[in-house]
Amino acid sequence: MKHKIKLEITVNNDSMQCIAEYHPRGYMRAKNDHLDISPECKILNTLYMLAKKRGVSLKCLNRNNCVSIIVPEINYEAILCVQDYRVKCRDKVYLMITRRGNLYIPVKLIKA
Protein backbone atom coordinates (compact mmCIF):
# COMPACT_ATOMS: atom_id res chain seq x y z
CA MET A 1 0.00 0.00 0.00
CA LYS A 2 1.33 3.45 -0.84
CA HIS A 3 2.14 5.91 1.92
CA LYS A 4 2.24 9.70 1.89
CA ILE A 5 5.46 10.87 3.47
CA LYS A 6 7.07 14.22 4.25
CA LEU A 7 10.41 14.62 2.52
CA GLU A 8 13.16 17.08 3.47
CA ILE A 9 15.12 18.06 0.35
CA THR A 10 18.33 20.10 0.34
CA VAL A 11 19.91 21.52 -2.83
CA ASN A 12 22.87 23.93 -2.65
CA ASN A 13 22.12 24.90 0.97
CA ASP A 14 18.44 25.60 0.14
CA SER A 15 16.00 23.36 1.95
CA MET A 16 12.34 22.54 1.31
CA GLN A 17 9.76 20.10 2.63
CA CYS A 18 7.69 18.23 0.05
CA ILE A 19 5.03 15.55 0.15
CA ALA A 20 5.81 12.34 -1.75
CA GLU A 21 4.14 8.97 -2.18
CA TYR A 22 6.13 5.86 -1.30
CA HIS A 23 5.24 2.81 -3.39
CA PRO A 24 6.64 -0.49 -2.07
CA ARG A 25 7.64 -3.19 -4.55
CA GLY A 26 4.61 -5.11 -5.79
CA TYR A 27 2.04 -2.39 -5.06
CA MET A 28 0.22 -1.54 -8.29
CA ARG A 29 2.75 -3.78 -10.10
CA ALA A 30 5.72 -1.65 -9.04
CA LYS A 31 8.94 -3.48 -9.94
CA ASN A 32 10.97 -1.50 -7.37
CA ASP A 33 10.35 0.43 -4.18
CA HIS A 34 10.17 4.08 -5.20
CA LEU A 35 9.10 7.62 -4.37
CA ASP A 36 6.74 9.62 -6.58
CA ILE A 37 7.38 13.32 -6.06
CA SER A 38 4.91 15.87 -7.42
CA PRO A 39 6.09 18.66 -9.77
CA GLU A 40 4.89 21.12 -7.10
CA CYS A 41 8.19 20.41 -5.33
CA LYS A 42 10.00 23.24 -7.15
CA ILE A 43 13.39 22.62 -5.54
CA LEU A 44 13.80 19.51 -7.75
CA ASN A 45 13.16 21.33 -11.07
CA THR A 46 16.64 20.41 -12.33
CA LEU A 47 15.98 16.69 -11.82
CA TYR A 48 12.56 17.03 -13.51
CA MET A 49 14.15 18.65 -16.54
CA LEU A 50 16.86 15.97 -16.80
CA ALA A 51 14.33 13.12 -16.50
CA LYS A 52 11.70 14.67 -18.78
CA LYS A 53 12.61 13.25 -22.21
CA ARG A 54 13.70 9.64 -21.71
CA GLY A 55 14.74 9.51 -18.10
CA VAL A 56 18.26 9.76 -16.76
CA SER A 57 20.64 7.52 -14.83
CA LEU A 58 22.46 9.36 -12.03
CA LYS A 59 24.93 8.60 -9.25
CA CYS A 60 23.38 8.04 -5.82
CA LEU A 61 25.11 7.89 -2.42
CA ASN A 62 23.77 6.73 0.95
CA ARG A 63 24.58 9.37 3.61
CA ASN A 64 23.46 9.44 7.26
CA ASN A 65 20.02 7.86 6.67
CA CYS A 66 19.52 10.07 3.59
CA VAL A 67 20.33 9.72 -0.10
CA SER A 68 22.29 12.11 -2.25
CA ILE A 69 21.59 12.26 -6.00
CA ILE A 70 24.51 13.78 -7.90
CA VAL A 71 24.84 15.32 -11.37
CA PRO A 72 28.63 15.95 -11.63
CA GLU A 73 28.47 17.69 -15.03
CA ILE A 74 26.60 20.66 -13.58
CA ASN A 75 27.89 20.42 -9.98
CA TYR A 76 24.41 19.57 -8.64
CA GLU A 77 23.55 17.55 -5.56
CA ALA A 78 20.10 16.89 -4.09
CA ILE A 79 19.90 15.36 -0.60
CA LEU A 80 16.63 13.59 0.27
CA CYS A 81 15.76 12.71 3.88
CA VAL A 82 12.62 11.24 5.44
CA GLN A 83 11.96 11.68 9.15
CA ASP A 84 11.82 8.38 11.12
CA TYR A 85 13.11 6.38 8.12
CA ARG A 86 16.45 5.39 6.65
CA VAL A 87 16.51 6.01 2.91
CA LYS A 88 18.67 3.67 0.79
CA CYS A 89 19.58 3.66 -2.89
CA ARG A 90 21.83 1.77 -5.29
CA ASP A 91 25.04 3.24 -6.76
CA LYS A 92 23.09 4.50 -9.78
CA VAL A 93 19.41 5.39 -9.93
CA TYR A 94 17.23 5.78 -13.01
CA LEU A 95 14.94 8.80 -12.70
CA MET A 96 11.94 9.23 -14.95
CA ILE A 97 8.64 11.05 -15.17
CA THR A 98 5.53 8.91 -14.57
CA ARG A 99 2.35 9.07 -16.65
CA ARG A 100 0.86 11.33 -13.98
CA GLY A 101 3.80 13.72 -14.26
CA ASN A 102 5.53 12.81 -10.99
CA LEU A 103 9.28 12.32 -10.59
CA TYR A 104 10.04 8.62 -10.03
CA ILE A 105 13.03 7.96 -7.75
CA PRO A 106 13.87 4.30 -6.94
CA VAL A 107 14.78 4.23 -3.24
CA LYS A 108 13.98 1.97 -0.31
CA LEU A 109 12.62 3.25 3.02
CA ILE A 110 13.53 1.35 6.18
CA LYS A 111 11.84 2.18 9.49
CA ALA A 112 14.49 3.68 11.79
Automatic annotation (TrEMBL):
So which domain of life are we looking at?
Archaea
Q: What is this protein called?
A: Uncharacterized protein
Taxonomic classification, please?
Archaea, Thermoproteota, Thermoprotei, Desulfurococcales, Desulfurococcaceae
